[in-house]
Amino acid sequence: MIGRSQEVEKLNELYDSGRAELVAIYGRRRIGKTFLVNETFSGRVTFKHAGLSPADEDANGLLRAQLNHFYNSLILHGMERCRKPDNWLDAFLLLEQFLQKIDDGSRQLIFLDELPWLDSPRSGFLRAFEGFWNTWACGRKNIMVVVCGSANSWVLDKLINNHGGLYGRVTYEIKLSPFTLRECEEFYRDRGAMFSRYDITQSYMIFGGIPYYLGYIDKKLSLAQNVDRLFFSRNGILRNEYDRLFDSVFTNPEAIKAIVRLLYARNAGFTRKEIVEKHKITDGGTLTKNLNALLASDFVVRYVPFGFSKREEHYKLVDPFCLFYLHFIQSQPETNEKFWQQNTASGQVVAWRGFAFENVCFNHVDQIKHALGISGVVSSSSAWSKKGGDEEGAQIDLLIQRNDNVVDMCEIKFTSGEFSVDKSYYRTLLSRPEKILEQVSPKTSVHSVLITTYGLKRNEYSGAFTNVVTMNDLFV
Length: 476
What we know:
Elements: H1 5-15, E1 21-26, H2 33-40, E2 47-50, H3 59-76, H4 88-102, E3 108-113, H5 115-118, H6 125-136, E4 143-149, H7 152-160, E5 172-175, H8 181-190, H9 197-207, H10 211-214, H11 223-232, H12 241-247, H13 253-264, E6 270-271, H14 272-279, H15 285-296, E7 300-303, E8 314-317, H16 320-329, H17 339-343, H18 347-362, H19 365-372, E9 379-384, E10 396-402, E11 406-413, H20 423-437, E12 445-452, E13 467-470
Parallel strand pairs: 1-4, 1-5, 2-3, 3-4, 11-12, 12-13
Antiparallel strand pairs: 6-8, 7-8, 9-10, 10-11
Helix pairs in contact: 3-4, 4-6, 7-15, 9-16, 9-18, 16-18
């Protein structure tokens, strides 16, 4: 299994803890939650059940289907046939009786996948699960319950941060995040796809670090051929994935997608107030819930731009897959099955790579800090632009504000060779630290950092940069 070593180690530690454990694993759809549990506990699962998708099903019909499916899972695991449960209280009673009957004192692992799907409207599922854990499971030292879900807001609100009967009952939580560039490289190599780091970085701009998407790569084809096959061919496997991604997880997918489309419109993101004004919606609990759902699923990050107050907190779309889809797929009314191969050097794609590489860096700040030798320094990261003047000239791709009285002003450039500084750009670089120093204490220093693919070409203007971080540094 690529990556996830810390998660595997912790899960095994919990399995051997000798006490009742309730473990919640969450993360965006396609991130590999089920794979993690299946691989880690292969041959050790006592009972496994996955909820049915609530799509296109009325509440009453869905509840009956979920109960029948749960009953069938019990039968498949060895329970003797009996009367089917009429509600979730009866269903969990059957599970308790089954586990008691086969109990030999060894660890009993119950894996409930897609738990939020089981909680259909007016089903009483959550109360029954609460009773199952509080009344029976938590008092049995050999019970370990692992639950997963892609509806992250449900997992957080109803389980981890529950203020009712399940308050404080989760003994451990794991949030699965997308692969890093290094883990993507390991994934490709494991499957015999020998891409260069230049191409792996571009693949990250498209697929993000989502194992499910990376698994569709055909090692016999180039990256460009794979992109055409998966996205731009008439029956491309991932061509309709964007809608599936939201429709299968969120109860209000159209409202969520509307927010995503708005955030896509500005690379630096929007404040909550701006989202309300531009989206023409009410600033209330529903918006909070939707934004929190996007944050929990790693589609969006929340940050305060340099020099601004907490009230100017921005929401920024950072999911590469969504950004790629909205930029290229949504805007293609007709299908050109070789679009990517024919446009790899076009102005549209070259400009997109520049913005997309900024996003890659935003998702690899830890690696950038490691390259700068400041991994142990407390810091905050943001994009920034100077208001009121020449906005383009005052725009900074990434600022790392450090607690050791240094601000790293990062310029991000994706090029096919060494980056070269000319006289005009040199003057621009020299003027920017002054704008930053206007908003910090006099004891602060500003370091100019270049983050680029293949490094900096040395010339009479290259001294404008204090440090250089290359693409290889992002693979650490």
